[in-house]
From TrEMBL:
It holds the Pfam family VWA. InterPro entries: ECM_Assembly_Org (IPR050525), VWF_A (IPR002035), vWFA_dom_sf (IPR036465). Gene3D superfamilies: von Willebrand factor, type A domain (3.40.50.410). CDD domains: vWA_collagen, vWFA_subfamily_ECM. It comes from Mytilus edulis (Blue mussel). This is COL6A. PANTHER family: COLLAGEN ALPHA, PH DOMAIN-CONTAINING PROTEIN. Residues 17-206, 241-418 form the VWFA domain. It comes from the Eukaryota. SUPFAM superfamilies: vWA-like.
């Protein structure tokens, strides 16, 4: 148990609901696992823990999920520290990180399990490696990593902050950055080994970063009982057919970058009222050829649509935007596939580079513009082409550019605040 030697370090005075996600796979030695537990113990020992103060929960993982305790289970610091010290080293032969993250958002943060809607949620993920499904799921290594990203995205979508701490040389930096909240330099922490993890410097680093973020961010507040006529509410009243066209070409570089595109899309969808009588959404992805992911009428609420987006896989290839635009026109925003005559037809096109066939792309854009579709163009990364983005969009105000994929989420509010009227 901690000795109280951190009393001079920064500490959180704001109440938080804090969940630890702890790797207990066999790649961690018994001695190092004890150091990991000591780290968690010391962080908690520095907080004000109580039913009306900070609440703590924990889950561990390796080849299986090991629920430890929830926010309602212990109401004193002494009891929480005792429960932390009782966490066993499972020494499993796989690293199914996604199971623990799924448990975090489905169980630990589920209504009625002690998480408070008026308190900031914080998750600390500790791991010494990368997601590895082993032989326990019918998933490849890359599919397992994708699932981890998807589960982390769901936690962040609810407004929780995730710190991802990678220990040792076996960690996947891209996976850590994908798990953690943005910006990565604040929420991703890498250390060389468990001795460094258990140092005063790293403990104070986590406490300081968490406190700065929490103390400068207002706690969530319940929704107002009346609907104010504000511009940020416009999307909730929008009746439209919206299609997302997602670049999955090789120039995106990593699965983590593509996952940030998916996170952006699910964030926009979450702001809409999705139903057959309100907003309908669809999605396709493209590289060498376009692939329809779901049509406008496939999902009738935002949860189903967002879940479908989170399951989209990155493939790589060239950037045949022209083929994607043709599919958008013939199978996406098309009456034969559920689009409606009396609502705006909107496409949000996200790409990281220049079309492989610019001539055909111009021809397809001319056809879409003649149909009076409203096109938004989002260019990401250093290879984006401002001239092509300008050709895609109906209006210069409908062009957005970001330098890096992790900055994409910052454009959610900008896009949601815009008046999505037909041009």
């Amino acid at each position: 148990m901690a000795s109280g030697r951190y009393k001079r370090a920064p500490f959180c005075k704001t109440r938080i609901d804090l969940a630890f996600v702890i790797d207990s796979s066999r790649s961690i030695s018994r001695n190092d696992f004890e150091k990991q537990i000591q780290f968690v113990n010391d962080i908690v020992d520095f907080l004000d823990v109580g039913s009306d103060e900070t609440r703590v929960a924990a889950v561990s993982f390796s080849n299986h999920l090991f629920p430890q305790f929830g926010f309602n289970d212990y109401t004193t610091k002494t009891d929480v520290l005792g429960a932390i010290n009782g966490i066993k080293h499972s020494m499993g032969d796989a690293t199914r990180t996604y199971l623990a993250l799924e448990h975090t958002h489905q169980t630990l943060f589920a209504p009625g399990n002690g998480e408070r809607p008026d308190v900031v949620d914080v998750v600390v993920v500790l791991t010494d490696g990368a997601t590895n499904p082993g032989s326990y799921d019918r998933l490849s290594g890359s599919q397992g990593k994708q699932k981890t990203q998807n589960e982390a995205a769901k936690i962040k979508e609810r407004g929780a902050y995730i710190f991802a701490i990678g220990v040792g040389r076996g960690v996947d930096v891209n996976e850590l950055n994908g798990i953690s909240s943005d910006p990565d330099q604040r929420f991703t922490i890498q250390v060389s080994g468990f001795n460094e993890l258990n140092s005063d410097e790293v403990k104070q680093m986590l406490l300081k970063r968490a406190c700065v973020e929490i103390e400068t961010t207002p706690a969530p507040t319940p929704a107002p009982t009346t609907t104010p006529k504000q511009k940020t509410e416009d999307c909730k009243e929008l009746l439209a057919d919206i299609f997302f066209v997602l670049d999955q070409s090789s120039s995106i570089k990593t699965e983590a970058n593509f996952n940030k595109t998916l996170h952006f899309v699910t964030g926009v969808i979450d702001y809409l009222q999705v139903s057959p009588s309100e907003t309908q959404v669809g999605a396709l992805k493209f590289s060498d050829k376009p692939e329809m992911q779901f049509h406008l009428t496939d999902y009738t609420d935002k949860q189903e649509a967002a879940s479908a987006v989170s399951r989209i896989k990155w493939k790589g290839g060239n950037t045949y935007l022209d083929k994607a635009l043709r599919m958008l026109r013939t199978e996406g925003l098309n009456k034969a596939y559920g689009s409606r005559d009396d609502v705006p037809q909107i496409a949000v096109i996200i790409t990281d580079g220049v079309s492989t066939n610019p001539y055909e792309t111009k021809k397809e854009l001319a056809k879409l513009h003649s149909l009076n579709y409203l096109l938004f163009a989002i260019g990401v990364g250093p290879y984006r082409d401002p001239a092509e983005l300008a050709r895609i969009a109906n209006d210069p105000a409908n062009v957005f550019e970001v330098e890096r994929y992790k900055c994409l989420s910052r454009k959610e509010k900008t896009l949601k605040d815009m008046d999505m009227n037909t041009p």
